[in-house]
Every structure is written in C-alpha cells, then in structure tokens.
Design brief:
The structure is a single chain. Helix content is about 25%, strand content about 25%. It has helices at about 55-60, 80-85, 105-120, 130-140, 155-165, 195-210, 280-285, 335-350, 375-385, 410-420, 450-455, and strands at about 5-10, 15, 35-40, 95-100, 125, 150-155, 170-175, 215-220, 240-245, 250-260, 265-270, 275-280, 295-305, 305-320, 325-330, 355-360, 395, 400, 405, 425-430, 440-445. The protein is globular and about 75 Å long. It has three domains: about 5-40; about 80-280, P-loop containing nucleotide triphosphate hydrolases (Rossmann fold), CATH 3.40.50.300; about 295-470, 2-Layer Sandwich (Ribosomal Protein S5, domain 2), CATH 3.30.230. The strands form four sheets. A nine-stranded mixed β-sheet has the order 6-5-7-8-4-9-10-11-12, with helices on both faces. The protein binds thymidine-5'-diphosphate (TYD) and magnesium ion. Magnesium ion binds near residues 106, 107 and 176.
C-alpha cells in the first residue's frame, strides 16, 4: 500500500522544503513552492520488500572491473547528425532527455529517429500530446508511415510500465513528453516536479533493468507551473537540447551532458516540408552569399566539436544618443564582447565607448569559443571604419587582455575548411606550423590588435561607409 505524505517542492529547481514559503531558498525564485504528495512505496506495484533489511546489505556482490558483460553495442540510426551528437549511436539501457522549446521540432526528430531504428530494432513511440491520427499524419508527411514502429497514446505511467515490462522487450522507447505523464499514486497534476521526477525515475529504472534505450522529451518553459526538465538532468545519462531561432529553418541539436560521448558536438538540421533534413556541410548554411565585401561582416573559422564550421559574424557600431550606450549580442557571450571592447579601447586606441554596439552571429548559431575574439574585433573595427576585411578572408584567434592575439586549438582544421569553401585568405594568430594545409591560402598572421587596426588602413572604404570615422592608432 502506498502511504501518502506531502512535501513542498520548488517548481523551478526541484528543491524540497519542509514547509511552504513564498520564495525558494535554493534558487531564489518567488511563488514557485507547491505542496505535492510523496510516496513511501514505489509506483508500479511490487511494493513489498522494498525496505532494505540489514541483512540485504551483506548480500552485496563485488565484482572485478574486468569481466564478462552484456554487449553494449550502440544503436545507430543512420541519421549521421544525430548519431554523432549522442556519441556514435545510442547506448542500450541508457536514458536520454531531449529538451527544447515547444514547436521546435522534438517530436518530428524523434519520430524520424524511431522510424530509422525500426527496421532492425523493436521501436516504440508513446505520445501523450498527440492523438494516433495526428502522429500517423505526421509519419506520412515524413515518409516513414511504412516503418514498423509500435505507436501508442498514453499518459498513465502504470499502463506504460505494464507494456514495457511485458514479455516482448523493446529496444528503444520514446516518451513524448515526460510532462504529460502521470503516476496516479501521486496527487499532484501532470507536469509538476513531483510527477515528472517520479515518472522519469520509474521509466529509467525499467530501461536499465530491461536494457532498452529510453528517450524522454521535455519542454522547456519559463512558467513555474510546468516543471522544466532541469530536475531530470541529473537522472538521465544524456541531455540533448534541440534549439533554433524562430524564423530560421535551421535546428541545432546539442549535447549538454553525455555519459557516453563528448558534449561539444552539434548536429545541424533544416526543417523542411517533409521533416528534418540533415545538413552535413553547415558552413555553407551560415555564410551569406554576397559578392561584394561589406563592412562589419567577418567570416569566423570556428570549430563545433570535432567539426570545423565557418560562420559570419556581423557587427554594427553607431554613435549613441544615450548616456550609456547600448550593447546587444545575439549568439555570443556579452561578457566576452565587453572584454573585446575594453581591450580594443585600452590597447589599440579604438574608441567605442560612445557608440552603440550590436553583434550578431548569422543563421541563429551560438558560438562559445574564445577563438571568435579576433573575428569579433575585426567586425567591430570594420563597422567603425567602414572598411571591409580583405575580400575572401576567414578569421580566427583569441585575444588576451594585453591586446595580444593568442593561438587557438585546431588551427589546421580551420584552415583546411577555409580553403575547402573557396576562401583565399586567412587572418590568424602566429601559427607554429600548418602542415601544408594552407598552401593555397594567403595567411596573414596577426600578433596583436595594433596590427589588426593597421590592416584595415590598407582597405578601401565600402560604398555604404559614408560615416567612416577615423581610428587613431
Ligand atoms: P514538433 O516536432 O511538433 O515540435 P515539438 O515536438 O518540439 O513541439 O514541430 C512542430 C513544427 O515543425 C511545426 O511548426 C510544424 C513544423 N514542421 C515542418 O515544418 N515540417 C514537417 O515535416 C513537420 C512534421 C513539422
Ligand atoms: Mg511535440
């Protein structure tokens, strides 16, 4: 028998408090603490014998690190952008969480993944959000309606566990979404932290025990009433975020935690009329195709995990009417921008403190590498002076506080991609050696920001640069 207690759970961070309060001490949010029922017995039957008797401990069996194990062969979907992000295929018995804003394409992606696996594995897709007809309609649109996917609509955890614990062991189970599932042993509404945590716990336990791969879909919302999947991040093996800008058709799948693979890989997709299409050469996607050089736009030769990626960084510097000029950044770290602005001002005499500064990474990509510093600095100087960077160049390099340009990792891969995409020049830090990859490239090594400023003096202002104002060096 399940005995009920209550506890007070923050709907924002999941912290449990002994009594109700207007503010959560753990995360500082207001109006987020809600009374929830707790269980002292597990959900899904088998409630007896759970309390560990002292004797149970003595039976713990210790084994050697090396020994016979179950074969953990990864499940490859064939969707290369997905497989790479999860570390080369999904591990049996593991739990993945796919988070993302509503409408970004999580259900679409996972239906495609499930269908891709369905040929060689037993795949189950359980929807708590859409009806059978709606999922079928989507499957037809994606062209996967013929695949032998086991489809069900359910929100009752016991019903789902019953099916998953049946004689037929599935290979992959998708739960779309964890916020719609409920355990009727708990009083609280679906989507509350208590429900989300309890349902996820039971599903993960079933996955580990029976060796199937579990994929949980979680919505990320700002409202406190729906539990964000943050409380789940500790429970699962892999956390993937599916993101993208509204208005852009590009979608990026990013691993933020992975017990079985790297976390710096991204997968790039494009939302089309027939579902998500893989983008295997994303550089072309994030570069705008224009013939004439424009001031303020610089191509950055970046790395996303193991893959080089060229992206356009755009800066706009304009005189500010405000006492405190505006700084707006999309796709980069605003703290990093402040640093680059300060170093430009202090070390290279580029005065930007009276200007509004807007910085944008094209295509909705988010860059976290310090290697983008030099490209950002170049975009800023270019916009300020109205002079473009030398035509056909890609830029990379980190900037130090004394204004020096520092070497970055994987210079060779960056140069290789630069050449491959038809660029003729690269603006880089001092390179130790390029191993011959830069043979077709004109490489300009820049030691410090002073040198970068001088580089622009050789360039003709662009037609639009009527407001060009000097940079004192
Ligand atoms: P969906 O997968 O339902 O998002 P989520 O599960 O993250 O809430 O995606 C919904 C959006 O994707 C919707 O705006 C329609 C669009 N879409 C397409 O553009 N093409 C397609 O083939 C499909 C299935 C969806
Ligand atoms: Mg959905």
């Amino acid at each position: 028998m399940a005995r009920k207690n209550t506890q007070y759970v923050c709907q924002s961070c999941g912290a449990v408090h002994p009594r109700w309060g207007g503010k959560c001490d753990a995360c500082g949010e207001w109006n987020c603490v809600v009374e929830e029922a707790t269980l002292t017995a597990p959900i899904g039957g088998k409630s007896s014998g759970r309390k560990a008797s002292p004797g149970a401990r003595a039976r713990l069996e210790l084994v050697a690190l090396d020994g016979e194990s179950r074969n953990l062969e990864r499940r490859i979907t064939g969707i290369a952008e997905f497989d790479r992000v999860v570390g080369g295929g999904m591990v049996p018995g593991s739990a993945l969480l796919v988070g993302g804003d509503p409408g970004i394409g999580k259900s679409t992606l996972l239906l495609q993944v499930t269908a891709a696996l369905a040929g060689g594995a037993k795949a189950i897709y359980i929807s708590g959000e859409e009806s059978i007809d709606q999922v079928r309609m989507r499957a037809r649109r994606l062209g996967v309606a013929e695949m032998p996917v086991g489809l069900a609509t359910a929100t009752d955890l016991n019903e789902i566990l019953g099916a998953l614990n049946g004689p037929d062991i599935p290979d992959i189970v998708v739960i779309d979404s964890i916020q719609t599932m409920y355990a009727d042993a708990l009083d609280s509404a679906p989507g509350t932290v208590g429900q989300v945590r309890a349902c996820a716990q039971e599903l993960i336990r079933a996955a580990k025990r029976r060796g199937f791969t579990l994929v949980l879909v979680g919505h990320v919302t700002k409202e406190g009433t729906i539990a964000g999947p943050r409380v789940l991040e500790h429970m699962v093996d892999t956390v993937l975020y599916f993101e993208g800008e509204r208005g852009h058709q590009f979608r990026i799948l990013r691993a933020v935690k992975n017990r079985f693979g790297p976390t710096d890989e991204i997968g790039v997709f494009e939302m089309t009329g027939g579902g998500l299409a893989e983008v295997s050469n994303p550089s072309q996607l994030f570069l705008s195709d224009r013939d004439e050089p424009v001031s303020g736009a610089v191509v950055f030769a970046g790395m996303e995990g193991s893959r080089p990626m060229l992206v356009e960084i755009q800066a706009l510097v304009a005189p500010s009417p405000l006492g405190t000029p505006r700084r707006a950044v999309v796709g980069w770290d605003s703290g990093r921008l402040s640093m680059v602005l300060a170093v430009l001002e202090a070390r290279a005499g580029v005065h930007l403190s009276g200007n509004d500064v807007y910085l944008n990474v094209a295509g909705g990509l988010r860059i976290s590498e310090p290697a983008a510093d030099l490209a950002v600095a170049a975009a800023l100087i270019s916009s300020l002076t109205g002079r473009p960077v030398p035509a056909g160049s890609a830029v990379f390099g980190e900037i130090g506080l004394s204004g020096e340009v520092r070497p970055v990792a994987q210079a060779e891969a960056r140069l290789k991609e630069t050449g491959k995409l038809g660029f003729s020049r690269a603006i880089t830090p001092r390179l130790r050696q390029t191993g011959g990859v830069a043979r077709d490239l004109q490489v300009r090594e820049i030691a410090d920001l002073g040198e970068l400023v001088l580089m622009f003096e050789d360039e003709e202002p662009t037609a639009h640069a009527a407001m060009a104002r000097g940079v004192d060096s």
